[in-house]
Design brief:
Elements: H1 2-17, E1 29-33, E2 42-47, E3 52-56, E4 62-67, E5 73-79, E6 88-91, E7 97-101, E8 112-117, E9 123-129, E10 137-142, E11 148-152, E12 159-164, E13 174-183, E14 202-207, E15 213-218, E16 221-226, H2 232-235, E17 241-244, E18 251-256, E19 262-266, E20 272-276, H3 285-288, E21 302-304, H4 314-334
Parallel strand pairs: 9-13, 13-21
Antiparallel strand pairs: 1-20, 2-3, 3-4, 4-5, 6-7, 7-8, 8-9, 10-11, 11-12, 12-13, 14-15, 15-16, 16-17, 18-19, 19-20
């Protein structure tokens, strides 16, 4: 019993002392509420400046919901292609919608996939393989050239950053290469399905309209990275700006409006789409010119993206691993494999 109490104390101290400071961003404001019963697991969101495009987690066919600014579904883009576990959504400059079929909670997939979907529903499948075994990934980023980047969701350590090692081939597979890693610190932002550990789990990504700001989110917070030249890998090696997204039940969706407003949303029935106005303006020139994070740029090295500070000693490592394993088990119990 004493050992268990000591473990809990160490974990609580880690959660309380390792949080990076938040910015002076506006509190997320509700824009509208998604009440359509077909959208109960909002996992990906993008904006074209007029409409929003949304996807559910998982699914047995391609379904992209086109929403108005009142959260009402205007139409649905469909295709019979049956994905395994869709997790995120991005939109290239030519209007193609990219679905990230990269969910793999059980780490058992030989390949993952990207689905390129036109506004008319024509779908092209691109299978991908990791160079270092299976991963669960819920964040997709596109750079200005349309190159996709996947960021993995890892409860026990660094999140890996991967991109295709060459031109995408259909159906493939195309090999991925690891170009960096990220480590997030726990924060005190309330929300998410697994308590404090949810603040280190990457659940979504987005790129600003001009490609100069990259966003990753956890269940509780958004992190904005400067990308003045549009280089995603280099951007993820810089110190980010943190924006709390408090009290989202299971926050997984994140997107940028054309004017730099940050949008967020999450799974569950009747959940809101919220907005933080002027979010990209928080990534100032001073931030852009700042030196890379503690681990250097995310090209072949680690970057401390607000990464959880490493405390010495085997005890802490065991405590965190045990606590994370418990939290991850609870999360998986809430979701299908």
């Amino acid at each position: 019993m004493l050992r268990r109490c000591a473990s809990l104390v160490v974990i609580v101290l880690g959660l309380a002392l390792c949080a990076p400071p938040a910015t002076a961003a506006e509190t997320p404001a509700t824009v509208c509420t998604v009440t359509d019963k077909r959208i109960t697991e909002l996992s990906g969101l993008v904006s074209d400046g007029r409409n929003w495009y949304a996807i559910n987690d998982g699914g047995t066919s391609v379904q992209v919901f086109v929403l108005g600014r009142d959260c009402v579904v205007q139409r649905v883009i469909t295709n019979s292609t049956d994905p395994y576990d869709v997790e995120d959504l991005a939109r290239s400059q030519d209007g193609t919608l990219w679905l990230s079929d990269t969910g793999d909670n059980d780490k058992k997939r030989d390949t993952v996939a990207l689905l390129a979907v036109t506004p008319q529903g024509k779908t092209t499948l691109y299978r991908l393989t990791y160079p270092d075994g299976a991963h669960d990934a819920e964040a997709l980023l596109l750079d200005r050239k349309g190159t996709p980047y996947l960021v993995t969701k890892n409860p026990f350590g660094d999140s890996g950053v991967y991109r295709p090692s060459g031109e995408l081939r259909s159906p493939g597979p195309t090999p991925l290469e690891r170009v960096g890693s990220l480590r997030f610190k726990t924060t005190d932002t309330p929300g998410g399905p697994v308590g404090g550990f949810g603040s280190v789990l990457v659940t979504g990504g987005a790129t600003s309209a001009d490609g100069t700001v990259i966003a990753l989110r956890t269940y509780t917070d958004a992190y904005l990275y400067p990308a003045p030249d549009g280089d995603v890998a280099a951007a993820l090696g810089r110190d980010p700006v943190r924006i709390p997204l408090a009290d989202e039940q299971q926050g997984e969706a994140i997107a940028f409006e054309q004017d730099g407003t940050l949008l967020s949303g999450g799974e569950g029935t009747g959940r809101p789409i919220r907005a933080v106005k002027g979010a990209t303006a928080l990534v100032t020139p001073a931030t852009t010119d700042a030196a890379p994070g503690a681990g250097g740029q995310a090209t072949g090295s680690e970057t401390d993206s607000g990464g959880m500070e490493a405390l010495p000693g085997l005890l802490f490592a065991l405590c965190v691993a045990g606590g994370a394993a418990f939290a991850w088990t609870k999360l998986r119990a809430r979701r299908r494999g």
